[in-house]
Structures are given as C-alpha cells and as structure tokens.
Amino acid sequence: MLRALCSFDGEAMYSVDDEITPVYPVTEKKVPLEERFDRQLRIRGWDQKVLDEAKIGVVGDEDLLASLYIMSAAALGVNNIAVVAPVLDENLINTAKRINPRLNLIHLQGFYTHSLLDDIFNNCRLLVDLCQFGLANKLLLEKGHKENIPVIRGFCYEENGQEGFKIFTYLKGREWQELYQLICPNNLPKGHFDDGVFDIIVSGIALEETKNILMHGKVSESIISYERSKLEVSARDQRILVTGSGALGVFLGLGLAYTGFRRSTFMDPDVAETTNLNRQILFYDAVGKSKAETLARRLHNLFGIEADSWIEYFRRQTDISSYDVIFDCVDNFETRIVMSEKCKEQKKTMISGGTNVDAGQVVIYDPTKNKKTPAELLGLYDIVDERDVDSPERVRASCKYRPDPSVIMTNQIIAGFMVDSYRILLAGQEPKNIFYDSKRDGRM
Questions:
Q1: Distance between CA 197 and CA 252 in Å, rounded?
Q2: Measured between alpha carbons, how far is 139 from 299 in angstroms, rounded to an integer?
Q3: Overall average pLDDT of the 109-135 stretch
Q4: Domain locations in the chain?
Q5: Alpha-helix runs per DSSP H in 361-426
Q6: Contact 282, 247 (CB under 8 A)
Q7: Would you say residue 128 has pLDDT above 50?
Q8: How far is it, in rounded angstroms, from Cα 177 to Cα 141?
Q9: pLDDT in tens, 169-214
C-alpha cells in the first residue's frame, strides 16, 4: 500500500522507500516509485496519487488501439484498468505489466454489446471508448449521461479518400449536435480501417485527456481531429537513421515497424535510467544498458525488422551518406544544429521532433523543396548563441543535474506525427509542419 510522506506544492508524493515488486523474472531489480515517476512528479500540480487510485474502463476492438492505450496508461502510473475487448495485443500487454508491475488489468474478452456487461465498470472514474461500432458508442454515451461519468471517445477512420482520427471527451451537459460525429455508422462489429501510427497518436491524446480529467485539468471543448489524403506508400526499403533512442525514439521505432519499414538504425550514446521508465516503455528491464542496443533488439524480436544500433554521439564527422532519411529525436539544440547542417550539406531528408511536458513540434526538411533547416526554422542558433555545438558530452552531462519534467503522452503523439510525415513525403505529397499544444483547444 502506498503512503504519502511529503508534499510538493501541496501535492502528495510517495515515500522514497516504497518499492515496486516485479511480477516477472526475479533478476529484474525493484524500482523505487519516486525514481520511476521522477520526471512527472516534477510537473507543477501533478497528482500521482490520483493515477494510482483511479479505476479506468476501456472498450476496445480487434485492433491495436486499446492495447496501446493500456500500455501507455500503465507507464504513466495508472494501476487499475477494466477492459472489454475481443482481443488485446499480447506483446503490448506484457510490456504494460513489466513497466508497471502494480497494474491490475481485468479483461473481459468480447464485444461491448449490452449494458449487462456494465458490472466490470463499477467504480470507474471515467470510460475510454476506442471501438468502431455504433452500438457500443451509444451505450457508453448513455451510461456517461445517466451516471455522470466522463467518456473519452477516440477512433481512426477512412472515408471519401481521406484518412484521419478524432478524439472527444464527453461530459454530462455537452449534448451538442456534433455528437453524431462520434458514432460509427456500422451499428454492429465488423472489419474496419485501422492504422498503427494513428493508433499511437490517438492513444496519446486520449491519455492526455484522461490525465486532465483525473487531475481536474481542462479537456478540449471541441473535437480533436486530424485528416489527410489517403496514402499509397509501396516502397518500404529505405535506410532510416533515428538519432536518439529515448521516448521519442521508442515510439518512432514502433510507428516505423507498424508501417512496415524494415531497415532502421538507432543511434544513442546513453544507457537507460530508472527515471526513463515513465515514458521509454521498452526499457523495463534494461536500466544500465544501452538504449540504442535495447531498442534495436526489442524491435527486431517483436517485428523481425533489420534494426541496428549505433552507440555514439552525432557529430560533424558522422557519416550519414548511406541513409535516405534522418529522424531527429535528440534532446539538445546543439546536436540538432549539427544534424541540420549535415543534412543540408548532403541533401538528406530530415524529420525533426521535439517535445516538452505540454507541447511538441514536427519540422520537416525536404532538400528539394525547403530552404530552411529545422535548426534555422526554429531559431536554434539564437537560442544556443555562443555555446559550443561540438560539445554534446558536456551539454548532456549538465542536463543530468538539471533534469526537465517529461511525460509519455507528448512523446508518443509527436513520434506518431513524425512517421506520418515521412509517409506523406514518400507518397509524393507535401507534409506540413505540426505544432501540438495540449493546452490549446483542438490541440493542433
């Protein structure tokens, strides 16, 4: 049982001697809760206790979406989840249990087609509707209305040559005419459009809304939506370099694998730390081990892809000549400047992602169309000013002593958009830079 020991800005925190006892191999070390959640406990007003105690109900379908949401929620520290779904992804659920051994997951295998199944949702603080048939959508909205329970609705869709997703949080009193947009046209379960990259984004935004409800934050007042033309991407044999194997790199790797890209190299000089575990979900047993090696090995084992590792800093002399695209997932401006200049010199496509607690951006550099690199567009030269851009070791070492708050949601959202931007490029279309802000209505 957890106990509050001290407070930070009035919020309860966990005792340093509270520990997680793994339910998996005994060789995995116990992880103090305060260390595991350190980066999110630093967020002003953060309430880890409410995540620890809340029970969440999830309704899923025959796709990845519910499993991705459960995995990310478990990493955030949600311990009690009840789910009705015909199937869950075994690899993602095993990851959820290993990243959070306190996870109490109740799974009723089947479709949510009758209110007689509601007992599984007793005492739930909120419901997350991720399924693709109208009967369940209507039943859950009715339950939310009658019992005054928030319902977060998220789904992917394909229609009229367009693909996209929508997320909306229903609260009693929001009985507005646009609500029909959340009801799937097929009343009963049947085959439907699904996309692993969109699922990563949708699960991240739905989890952001979950956190806001539980911590009495503001949810979006309008439907959060994203839409683009349907893509035809046939070739997936591009050689891909991912620089940075932290939270962005992990979800980027998942997105590339779900899309079918087979040849990726992950570059990172660092080892996994306990404080990474609240967002870098594939490192559950890899504290002290190379991030790049662990990520490449996990993706190869899970998807059979050709994933290589490169344990090194990105420097001016780094050879990128054999790669078709460079994904920038680094966490410092100096390296991003060097990378931008290198890609401009060698005419390499670069997709740059950056995140903080509440927001993030994706900036695309296509050497055939863009004049400005990500570093130039984001004004990084003015930010860095006189600092030495060739000293990543010094810069990174200093960050260890001034760690920034970080959570899983913005990382998975931005990583998903990075992969989708590359798919748009390969389809011969022109992707737009994306600026996501979780505090803005509509988010994008």
A1: 9
A2: 38
A3: 96
A4: 45-229, 240-437
A5: 374-377, 380-384, 392-400, 408-426
A6: no
A7: yes
A8: 14
A9: 999 888 777 788 899 999 999 999 999 999 999 999 999 999 999 9
Distance CA 332, CA 328 (A): 10
With H, G, I as helix, E, B as strand and everything else as coil, classify residue 174: coil
Q: How far is CA 267 from CA 4, 20, 314, 330, in A?
A: 39, 30, 8, 10
Domains 45-229 and 240-437 share a fold: yes
Report the C-alpha dihedral over residues 316, 417, 220, 215, rounded to 10 degrees.
Answer: -60
Q: CA–CA separation, 56 vs 163, rounded Å?
A: 29
pLDDT of residue 388: 58
Q: What is the mean pLDDT of residues 68-73?
A: 98
Nearest by Cα to 16 from 28, 29, 4: 4
Q: Would you tell me which CATH number, out of the four given (2.60.120.10, 3.40.50.720, 3.40.50.300, 3.30.1160.10), belongs to the domain 240-437?
A: 3.40.50.720
**CA-CA distance, 28 to 24, in Å (whole number)?**
7
CB of 95 closer than 8 Å to CB of 105? no
pLDDT tens, 131-140? 999 999 999 9
| 126-129/306-310 β-pairing | unpaired
Task: Name the token pair of 159.
Answer: 């229609």
Residue with tokens 């690199």: 373
Answer whether 0.85 is exceeded by the pTM: yes
| C-alpha span between 341 and 390 (Å, rounded) | 12
Percentage of the residues of the chain whose pLDDT score is greater than 70 = 89
Residue 354 makes CB contacts below 8 A (sequence gap 6+) with 336, 360, 361, 378, 414
- Residues 278-297 as b/e (b if ≥16 CB within 10 A, e otherwise) read bbbbbbbbbbeebbbbbbbb
Q: Could you tell me how many helices (H) and strands (E) the chain has, helices first?
A: 14, 18
45-229 fold: Rossmann fold (3.40.50)
The two tokens of residue 202 are 């949708």
